[in-house]
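Q: Got a minute? One more chain.
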Amino acid sequence: MEKKFVILNNNEKIAYLEQGHGEKVLILIHGNFSSSLYYKPLLELLPLDIHTFALDLRGFGDSSYNERVMSLKDLAKDIKLFMESQNIKKANIVGWSLGGGVVMEFAAAYPDLTEKLILINSTTHKGYPVFKKNESGQPIIGQVYSTREEMAKDPIQVKPVLDALNNKNFDFMKYIFDITIYTYKKPNEEDNKLYIDETLKQRNLVDVDFALASQNMGQSHNLYSAGENTISYISCPVLHFWGTYDITVPESLVLDNVNALEDQSTYIKFDECGHSPLVDKPEELTASIIDFIK
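A: Always. Here it is, folded:
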């Protein structure tokens, strides 16, 4: 799969994969520690009469990182600018994990550009908190970091991963994925090398971790930021996925989104599936997405 590149109006260079043709447009947004290539299983199964784009978000994969990400809204704006660059008037938008938070921001800010929304094991619209840790490394519930610099020193969730990215530590990142993402199936060795090599290109970890914790499209304060109630701006149909073996995003977070968007939501729960239905349930995932957008 060969990536293409485009310079957005904000001077960020975005890498992306493109396949297919036709009136139906599908835009795929990856999660944290990943890139467009993590959508390889889905791209291999999607029919070519769906015009599909998979993006490397700013600071991930082969995209540039000229301006720091201050909130997930920045990444949502990049999607809008990408659509403008490709003359896309309206699209079905998919977000996996952190990407779910990004595409919810997109659908809320740009409802006229959003046909339907698909959330794969998505973070909650209320933010994914990173709590301070005690001397034993356990989270101190309710105590949060006030700055990115402070969060960068988190001894469990942030600093070890940041060090691994800085040192291009393939084995450590593979270990992290094995225990947190691939809790049911594992990718084959060739694909896993492709994926982890992409992960090691990430340059924005602390910024997106802080942005993810600070996201709050709900109504009440989440300890990091006040609620903006922008989840109510999403007006399109929404398809939610979750896997019963997912230990990264608990079902309660997914149900936060389902309940907030109750009138327009469809919820599919996969048994024997971890945080990546792309690896664990690619055929079922693809078929459900095709059925939903067509």
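A: The first strand starts at residue 4 and ends at 7.
Q: Perfect, thanks.
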